[in-house]
């Protein structure tokens, strides 16, 4: 449905990665996603701003890393949500 209304190679590629659980080789490791999310949250704190979706992403990245997924593509977040 998303591809129909909002067609994009990104949706198609990451959708396939998630459905097929093809998380290796990582295009962007989950550990790097957590690093970048933490940097965004630090910048938001300095600007006295709130990033609730970044907080949620941080929780999912952290859970994935705790479960040994740190070297997988960030699309493996689907495994933490399942």
Can you put this structure into words, describing what you see?
- By secondary structure, the protein is mainly α.
- The chain has a single domain, classed as N-(1-d-carboxylethyl)-l-norvaline Dehydrogenase, domain 2, CATH 1.10.1040.
- Helices cover 65% and strands 0% of the residues.
- The chain contains 5 helices and no strands.
- It has helices at residues 2-5, 9-20, 30-46, 52-66, 77-81.
- Helix 3 (30-46) packs antiparallel against helix 4 (52-66).
- The longest helix has 17 residues, at 30-46.
- The protein starts with a helix and ends with a helix.
- The mean pLDDT is 91.
CATH A-level architecture: Orthogonal Bundle
Estimated structural class: mainly alpha
In the CATH scheme, the class would be: Mainly Alpha
Mean of the pLDDT scores?
Answer: 91
Can you give me a brief rundown of this structure?
This protein has 82 residues and is mainly α.
Indicate the topology.
Blueprint: H1 2-5, H2 9-20, H3 30-46, H4 52-66, H5 77-81
Helix pairs in contact: 3-4
Keywords:
N-(1-d-carboxylethyl)-l-norvaline Dehydrogenase, domain 2; single chain; HIBADH-related_NP60_sf; 3-hydroxyisobutyrate dehydrogenase-like NAD-binding domain-containing protein; 82 residues; globular; mainly alpha
């Amino acid at each position: 449905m998303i591809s129909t209304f909002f067609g994009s190679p990104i949706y198609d590629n990451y959708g396939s990665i998630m459905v097929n659980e093809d998380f290796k080789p990582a295009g962007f490791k989950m550990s790097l996603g957590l690093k970048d999310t933490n940097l965004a949250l630090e910048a938001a704190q300095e600007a006295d701003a709130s990033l609730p979706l970044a907080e949620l992403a941080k929780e999912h990245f952290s859970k994935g890393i705790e479960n040994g997924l740190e070297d997988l593509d960030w699309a493996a977040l689907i495994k933490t949500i399942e």
